[in-house]
Amino acid sequence: MTLITILIWTLTCCSFTGCSGQVTVTQPAVITSTPGSTVALTCKTNPAVHSRCYNGQSTSHCMSWYQQKPGQPPQLLVRHVRINHSGTAARFSGSGSSTDFTLTISGVQAQDEAVYYCLGYNSDGTYTFGGGTKLIVDSGVVRPTLTVLPPSPEELQQGSATLVCLASGGSPSQWKLSWKVGGSSTTTPASHSLEVLGSDGRFSWSSTLNLPADQWKKVDSVTCEASLSGQSSVTQTLDPHSCSV
């Protein structure tokens, strides 16, 4: 289920139990870690989570942790504060009581990069989600390889030109793709895909630019650029006149 679905579910739970506007669940927005290290994600509730949640007496999920990766629904990792859900890797462990809870990841892997949400079961019977902590796994800077795909002759005959920039093998996931048409930044909006994490711990993603066929035929060049703060850009340029039409 999506985060929106979870929020609707949360509101539904509140409608049955009577939500208290004073209940808050606080998480840090971003934490950066490196492969192989140990990271602790914290969650603080106000008021305290019901004691039955961490003394083994409750049948509800109480304090739970969810992991959400780009383009995927949240996955339950830990329930009842410290009980790993079926399928959760042993490197994940939960702890805490009262108002302070922690999800610890031992031996962080690149695939652990995601947003982590804690869900607290409160003493008034309501459930509340935290705002989520984005875990960034810094594997070091690796410049992506760019490939620009030209429009097809069939599409050009229809009066439009779609260009796709494929970025592969980059790290971290914060590399951003942009376009230049004829050497200048374009005001034409481009669509961007979500990054995909490969088994090697590096990311791939894409950007799509749509131009009128006439503009494509007139410009000298179209360039895709990958940029990351503090790093020199990676570019790949396509010459429309070298492409068969």
UniProtKB/TrEMBL annotation:
Signal peptide (residue range): 1-21
Domain Ig-like: 21-118, 144-235
PROSITE patterns: IG_LIKE
Coiled coil: none
Gene3D superfamilies (alphabetical): Immunoglobulins
Domain of life of the native organism: Eukaryota
Keywords: Disulfide bond, Signal
PANTHER family listed in its UniProt record: IMMUNOGLOBULIN LIGHT CHAIN
Name this polypeptide is given: Ig-like domain-containing protein
